[in-house]
Design brief:
- The protein has ten helices and 14 strands.
- By secondary structure, the protein is an alpha/beta fold.
- It has two domains: 140 residues, NAD(P)-binding Rossmann-like Domain (Rossmann fold), CATH 3.40.50.720; 161 residues, L-2-Hydroxyisocaproate Dehydrogenase, Chain A, domain 2, CATH 3.90.110.10.
- The protein has a nine-stranded mixed beta sheet, with helices on both faces.
- The model has no long low-confidence stretch (mean pLDDT 95).
Length: 306
């Protein structure tokens, strides 16, 4: 039985914990600084075991001792951007939280794999990598697994086809500077560019880029957590079951795509050791320019970290 710790018992963290423990392949530890919150949510989820039919265990705690020797640690802790808060203030606040979390992860699970979810995820993944001292294969973040799912959803709805027939990669920053190359998106093996006019494709891409904001605007008092937690679970399972599945993740680049010392969403092969390979798409010159511009946007976020 694998052991997976999830730091942060908010909507994303708790839902992710529920999804994983219900599958029955791992015991889960849910951690949060708020007394009673992780314990209460963990107990509630555990009490559903006889109904759902899983035998794995979930524990809620306010400390890190129970996370010792975790195979994977998912970091969802942090704050959302509040009214009047600048982007730099958000980054600085979440950086302090992530730095503390990662220090505890290194202390208690030195051989584990870190998956970052805290936003801005590209910068927080970079920070987690530097603070942990782990090899880049063992530190990566949520990116295209979520963005790509959103884009695939919109394409499938537009064409009235099964989502399993839609293949779409998103790369670059997880945010406004996300990049999509329509010629590499396919439906049943056919290029998307042969199935929809350019204007409609642009509309679907824009909706995917703004996917998180669309949900925030609808909810008014919260943000997305069902799709993000599902995307995290996909990444976790690729590692746990050594799937060698190609998923777009926030990964540290060391020359790939001509970029160095930056974390960016790119397709990677995920297996038992984490990132087994960074997949380099065959991009055209103008596509490389767009990806480089997205990388520059991430560098500006990283610069705030000092």
């Amino acid at each position: 039985m694998k052991k997976i710790s999830i730091i942060g018992a908010g909507n994303v963290g708790a839902t992710c914990a529920q999804r994983i423990v219900e599958k029955g392949y791992a015991d889960v530890v849910l951690v949060d600084i708020i007394e009673g919150l992780p314990q209460g949510k963990a107990l509630d989820i555990q009490e559903s075991a006889p109904v759902i039919g899983f035998n794995s265990r979930i524990t809620g705690t306010n400390g890190y001792q129970d996370t010792a020797n975790s195979d994977i640690v998912v970091i969802t802790s942090g704050i959302g951007r509040k009214p009047g808060m600048t982007r730099d203030e958000l980054i600085t606040t979440n950086a302090r939280i992530v730095k503390d979390v990662v220090s505890n992860v290194v202390k208690h699970s030195p051989g584990g794999i870190i998956i970052t979810v805290t936003n801005p995820v590209d910068a927080m993944t970079y920070l987690a990598l530097k603070v942990s001292g782990f090899p880049r294969e063992r530190v990566f973040g949520l990116s295209g697994a979520l963005d790509g799912a959103r884009l695939r959803t919109f394409i499938a709805l537009e064409l009235n086809v099964a989502v399993s027939d839609v293949f779409a990669f998103t790369v670059g920053e997880h945010g406004e500077n996300m990049v999509v190359f329509p010629r590499l998106c396919t439906v049943g093996g056919m290029p998307l560019t042969n199935l929809l006019p350019a204007e409609k494709i642009d509309q679907l891409i824009t909706r995917a880029v703004k996917g998180g904001a669309e949900i925030v605007n609808l909810l008014k008092t919260g943000s997305a957590f069902y799709a993000p937690s599902a995307a995290v679970m996909q990444m976790v399972e690729a590692v746990v079951f050594d799937k060698r599945q190609v998923i777009s993740c926030a990964a540290y680049l060391q020359g790939e795509y001509g970029l160095k010392d930056v974390v960016l969403g790119v397709p990677v092969k995920l297996g038992k050791n984490g990132i087994e390979q960074i997949v380099e798409l065959d991009l055209m010159a103008e596509e490389m320019v767009k990806l480089a511009a997205s990388a520059e946007a991430v560098r500006k976020l990283i610069s705030v970290l000092g």
